[in-house]
Design goal:
Elements: H1 2-17, H2 21-46, E1 50-55, H3 59-72, E2 76-78, E3 84-88, H4 92-101, H5 112-115, H6 123-142, E4 148-156, H7 164-168, E5 172-179, H8 185-199, E6 207-211, E7 216-218, H9 226-253, E8 260-270, E9 274-282, E10 291-304, E11 330-342, E12 344-352, E13 356-375, H10 376-381, H11 390-396, E14 401-403, H12 407-417, E15 424-435, H13 444-474, H14 482-487, H15 502-515, H16 517-532
Parallel strand pairs: 5-6, 13-15
Antiparallel strand pairs: 1-3, 2-3, 4-5, 6-7, 8-13, 9-12, 10-11, 14-15
Helix pairs in contact: 4-8, 9-12, 15-16
């Protein structure tokens, strides 16, 4: 193995020495050109591309943005005046989301080709181009949300006519999302905050977000409006039904009896808020009444007697007497008692929040499918295709067949959802799934690629063979002088050739050519190389 490795440089050197100096120069120039072209191409493709993120109004704002970018690990550059911040093109969306989360208006949508127009370009044209670019850039940013498959953004920007009123107007945004996963109201609210910041609005009241099925995901910050309440209630119902469907699918697919499960639920939700207060009064233990809280006792006694001075002053010693017929004394007594008792009291307060599921009024439907896989090779081996084609067999056996549903399946669905068994409907089908015989599966693009590969290999083979032929031509035998060739003949040397001896010399040369044709050919080739080289 070591000897083979050592022989490789020797073989390479031998192969290189086979070329002439002119061929070596051409090969070196071509290799250098290819290397330089590849270096330029790699440099152009790998050179970082920066996009404008923000035009800051002050260096303080620029410092705040750069601090956020440093914390997030986003690569950026700052202009010489410190007011323009650019980030890598592949990190532009992350930077916009970062500024939106920190309520910093992003100016990344302003591009030079929007504002740099020709003499025929008006300010209105620039605003329209800016609007189109802003919509496209915002659609790309919204696609970074995991559940968003496609986003269509329509913007209504205020016309900038230079007046103070137009500067105070806010933009409007309508967004339609095509979703491929779970997208909650919290996600829609976060998206609205991002769009609000990107547009430079003070709030998200002018932003509406819907999905491709017509469901309202966000309708502004006024959550107390009628539309907002309807949207919230519909969202709660959809989330509850989505949870029920997922649980039913998970339970039924876990039985390994079915290949596909489709669930439709109709949940009855109570969105009314109820508050119940119960007061329970009981006497104290061992008593017929409660605890004494207040007691008041009033007693009064009155006595009346005869005699006394009529008038205002007392009489002296000489008293004047008056005779009063039948004047006797009288008296009266009054007694009142008042007591307040407090019996034991228990107050129960119960608040029922809105959105509870009424399981007795809800219903659910389940459709289960079991696939009967039939491969063309297996059917043909079974002899079922005798006399008919595969397409005819599929047409004759393509209908689905209803299967009986076990009561245990309905009981599982009932216990998984809390819905009574009489409100659950379930059907099961066996559906044939035909798999055609696999062919070559060669597309037109594959054929083109194969043809290109063959052409490239053919060109390489042609170049190699051409170079080998040149090498064989270069590998010449040792050049022989005319004198040596003449000396190799058995004829005596010809010291001088005169006119009379020309015929004799010619005979010797012709004889040499007849006896040594290869040597004569090498000699002629050497002469030609010396004349034309």
């Amino acid at each position: 193995m070591t000897e083979r490795l050592k022989a490789i440089p020797v073989k390479i050197l031998e192969w290189w020495n086979r070329f002439t100096s002119k061929q070596k120069t051409i090969i070196i120039c071509i290799a250098a050109g290819v290397i330089i072209a590849l270096a330029i191409l790699v440099t152009a493709l790998t050179r970082p591309q920066y996009e404008l993120l923000a035009n800051c109004e002050s260096t303080k704002e620029a410092a705040q943005i750069t601090e956020l970018l440093d914390g997030a690990g986003i690569t950026y550059t700052v202009s010489d005046d410190g007011y323009q911040i650019k980030v890598l093109r592949e990190q532009l969306s992350d930077a916009n989301l970062l500024l939106g989360a920190n309520n910093i208006p992003a100016a990344a949508y302003g591009i030079d080709n929007v504002t740099n127009g020709g003499f025929s370009s008006t300010e209105s044209d620039k605003q329209k181009r800016y609007k189109l670019y802003l919509q496209g850039q915002m659609e790309e940013d919204l696609l970074r949300f995991e559940a968003v498959k496609k986003a269509d953004v329509q913007l209504s920007l205020p016309e900038n006519d230079g007046t103070l009123l137009s500067k105070n107007e806010e933009s409007f945004a309508s967004i339609i999302l095509e979703l491929e996963g779970e997208f909650t109201q919290e996600n829609a609210a976060a998206m609205a905050q991002f769009v609000k910041t990107a547009l430079g609005n003070e709030n998200a009241s002018n932003i509406t977000i819907l999905d491709s099925q017509g469901n309202l995901l966000f309708s502004g910050e006024d959550s107390y409006s009628v539309t907002g309440n309807a949207s919230n209630q519909l969202s709660v119902k959809q989330q509850a039904e989505r949870l029920v469907r997922s649980e039913v699918k998970r339970v039924l697919l876990g039985t390994n009896q079915y290949d596909n499960i489709e669930v439709a639920s109709n949940l009855a939700l109570d969105f009314s808020s109820t508050e119940i207060v119960n007061h329970d009064y009981t006497p104290a233990e061992g008593q017929t009444q409660g605890v004494l809280s207040h007691e008041a006792i009033f007693n009064a006694e009155n006595v009346n007697s005869s005699g006394g001075v009529p008038g205002t002053d007392s009489n002296g010693e000489n008293l004047t007497t008056y005779e009063m017929p039948d004047s006797d004394s009288s008296s009266s007594t009054q007694s009142e008692e008042e007591r307040d008792y407090l019996p034991n009291e228990r107050i129960e307060s119960q608040t029922i929040p809105p959105g509870l599921i009424k399981y007795d009024e809800s219903s659910i439907s389940v459709s289960a499918i079991t696939y009967n896989v039939q491969r063309e090779e297996d059917i043909r081996n079974q002899g079922l295709l005798d006399g008919i084609s595969w397409d005819e067999y599929k047409a004759a056996n393509g209908e689905r067949v209803m299967q009986p549903v076990d009561d245990n399946m309905i009981d599982m669905v009932s216990k998984a959802t809390g819905i009574a068994a009489e409100n659950i409907a379930m059907v099961a089908y066996e559906e044939p799934l035909f798999i055609d015989k696999e062919g070559m599966n060669i597309r037109a693009t594959d054929v083109i690629q194969i043809v290109l590969i063959i052409i490239i290999l053919g060109l390489l083979a042609f170049v190699v063979l051409r170079s080998m032929r040149g090498e064989k031509g270069a590998e010449q035998e040792e050049e022989l002088a005319v004198e040596d060739l003449l000396q190799s003949t058995p004829e005596p040397e010809v010291e001088g050739i005169t006119v009379e001896e020309w015929s004799e010399t010619r005979k010797m040369i012709e004889k040499f050519v007849d006896d040594n044709p290869e040597a004569a050919a090498n000699l002629l080739r050497n002469w030609l190389n010396e004349d034309w080289g």
